[in-house]
Amino acid sequence: MEKKKRKKIGLAWQILIGLVLGVIVGAVFYGNENITKYIYPLGVIFMNMIKMIVVPIIISTLIIGVAGQGDLKQVGKLGLKTLIYFEIITTIAIILGIFLADITKFGEGVNMKDLTKGDISSYVNSSEEMAKESHGIMDTIISIVPTNIVSSMASGDMLPIIFFSVLFGIGVAAIGEKGKPVLAFAQGVADAMFWVTNTIMKFAPIGVFALIANTVATFGLSSLIPLGKLMILVYFAMIFFIVVVLGITAKIVGLSIFRIVRILKDELILAYSTSSSETVLPRIMIKTEKAGVPKDIGSFVIPTGYSFNLDGSTLYQAIAALFIAQMYDIDLALSQQILLVLTLMVTSKGIAGVPGVSFVVLLSTLGAVGIPLEGLAFILGVDRLLDMMRTVVNVCGNTLAAFVMAKWEGRLDMDKYNNYFENEAAELAAKAAAKEHH
User: Fold this and answer.
1) pLDDT at position 417, please?
2) CA atoms lying within 13 Å on the CB side of residue 369
3) How many alpha carbons fall within 13 Å on the CB side of residue 182?
4) I need a surface site. Which of 15, 208, 301, 335 has the fewest CB within 10 A?
5) Using the 8-state DSSP alphabet, how is residue 221 labeled?
């Protein structure tokens, strides 16, 4: 009996407990280097384990999905629709961010003497590297086609991996019978990797505890008070974006954003705690398929969204840029704000879903409109907490995109979508019965 009771603490609750304990331990041991030395590595190990499984999952599921579809024209159509959808949604996010920052003017009157300056040198270096690589639209298009797929896999570049997998999947379909063993192998890899995913997720609460404890121990809770206005604005904007913008988008195609959020409950808590959308990528792909999104659509749209559809990141970048400008009493003209929108539209494309990447993009954007880069050092202390929320928006945006695309293609299984929770409960009951039987 006792065993059964212990089982009842679901993953979402375990992660929340890890999150709360991490905040407490971090606050108690504020400034203690031992947290970074001994506890933080547990968080890094968890993040590394997730990164380790992302590439094999994307490659195997895309090959299975696309080979099942087997039509280059269909894939091309889906790709074009997906990119247009991503561009529209991210542009709305940027404009919303600028609009809210303009109306509230929360950056005005913030006393910079009250703020702790963080060390942004590593971000500056990353930003300079990014500038050298040049991230124009043509560069992004060129980078989609890999020169060496093995090196793309090694560095985890999503777009070249997706391009190769789609092409390979079409090739497998084209050779017919000869391709069947390859397809069976890909199916075996996908099934094994999903088992590995579920095993790694058992470690999630410990990973979350370590990451949060380190953040709070490094920056402390006192750094949050002067920037409370920025946090309130960002959190309000993010929740507004999910409920209103994504809510209306879902409604247009006859879906409910609240149902999708409920389906993703565990993943959203994990994404929030780790502030990395990569940690939930494998699980989102499993869940969207269970909720009626065909494998080929889910395994194409979701990973592509990780490079092209970071709604939360672009929304945050727009707010943060104007907040810093207001802190320095810089009044941006309409033309400069339009330039800011255009710069963000370009620089936010093709970036990975890892923690802190928004900060790097923000650095390269501020320079374009003449806002002092050192302003970012002031908001570094709360960046992790803001990163947590923007990750939630990124995950919601990408998951909704998979549902929207499946619906537009007329291929969303509405039975699976409507009966998701009943099916899940039945599956869990069947697993429990099988265990008892053994």
Assistant:
1) 96
2) 25
3) 21
4) 335
5) T
Amino acid occupying residue 307 = S
* Res. 352: pLDDT tops 70: no
Predicted TM-score (pTM) above 0.90: no
Per-residue pLDDT tens for 148-194?
A: 999 999 988 888 999 999 999 999 989 989 999 999 999 999 999 98
Question: Does residue 353 register a pLDDT over 50?
Answer: no
d(CA 274, CA 212): 8
Q: Which residues are CB-neighbours of 284 under 8 A, at least 6 positions away? A: 264, 267, 302, 395, 398, 399, 402
Taking only the tens place, the pLDDT of each residue in 314-335 is: 899 899 999 999 988 988 888 8
Min mean pLDDT across 132-136, 216-220, 244-248 is at 132-136
Q: Which residue has the tokens 């390859």?
A: 182
pLDDT class of 385 with cuts at 50, 70, 90? confident
- Phi, psi at 344, each rounded to 5°: -65, -35
Would you tell me how many other CB atoms lie within 10 Å of the CB of residue 400? 29
Quote the CA–CA distance of 184 and 188 in Å, as a whole number.
6
Select from 409, 341, 438 the least CA-distant residue to 101: 341
Q: CA-to-CA distance for 21 and 210, rounded, in angstroms?
A: 9
Please give the average per-residue pLDDT across 296-319, as a whole number: 89
CB burial readout 108-129, b (16+ within 10 A) else e: eebeeeebeebebeebbebbee
What's CA 181's distance to the chain center, in Å? Answer: 34
C-alpha to C-alpha distance for 24 and 244, rounded to whole angstroms: 34
Angle at 111 between CA 109 and CA 117, to 5 degrees: 135
CB 383 within 8 A of CB 150: no
- Phi and psi at residue 148, to the nearest 5°: -145, 105
Cβ partners under 8 Å of residue 227, min gap 6: 110, 115, 378, 379, 381, 382
Helices (H), 220-280: 228-240, 247-252, 257-263, 265-274
Contact in structure between 108 and 329 (CB atoms under 8 Å)? yes
Cβ atoms of 57 and 285 within 8 Å: the answer is: yes
pLDDT of 364 reads 75
Residue among 290, 299, 298 at smallest CA distance from 403:
298
